[in-house]
């Protein structure tokens, strides 16, 4: 049975979707963008934006009863692939080996014209 995950520690959904959904032992997050829990866009470049995205993911995963160590797959959407190295440096600081599987793609545009969006698939404890 699926359950909806909702936490005020991450930005509220800005459309008809949930922050995350659990199904059995799995947690599937919606893509997180660099908004604060209050809904404000983080200033700065790809480094600051990636830090906020990961903070949001941590909060959503915690509300679902898990954490970054239990992530098995990530999908990273970048507005500009030339920012991959900077995003990857932040990513690597938060995910430990054995690393989750990952796809990274450049997209034409992201919501609110942000630089990065990340979604994850994790298992619950």
From TrEMBL:
Its EC number is 3.5.99.10. PROSITE patterns: UPF0076. GO terms for molecular function: 2-iminobutanoate/2-iminopropanoate deaminase. SUPFAM superfamilies: YjgF-like. CDD domains: YjgF_YER057c_UK114_family. GO terms for cellular component: cytosol. Keywords: Hydrolase. This is 2-iminobutanoate/2-iminopropanoate deaminase. It comes from Deinococcus metalli. The lineage of its organism: Bacteria, Thermotogati, Deinococcota, Deinococci, Deinococcales.
């Amino acid at each position: 049975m699926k359950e909806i995950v909702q936490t005020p520690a991450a930005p509220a959904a800005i459309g008809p979707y949930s922050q995350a959904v659990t199904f059995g032992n799995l947690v599937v997050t919606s893509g997180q963008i660099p908004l604060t829990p209050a809904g404000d866009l983080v200033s700065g470049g790809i480094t600051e934006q990636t830090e906020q995205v990961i903070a949001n993911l941590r909060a959503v995963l915690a509300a679902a009863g898990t954490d970054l160590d239990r992530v098995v797959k990530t999908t990273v959407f970048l507005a500009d692939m030339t920012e991959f190295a900077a995003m990857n440096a932040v990513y690597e600081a938060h995910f430990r080996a054995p690393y989750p599987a990952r796809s990274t793609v450049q997209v034409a545009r992201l919501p609110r014209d942000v630089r990065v969006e990340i979604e994850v698939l994790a298992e619950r404890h």
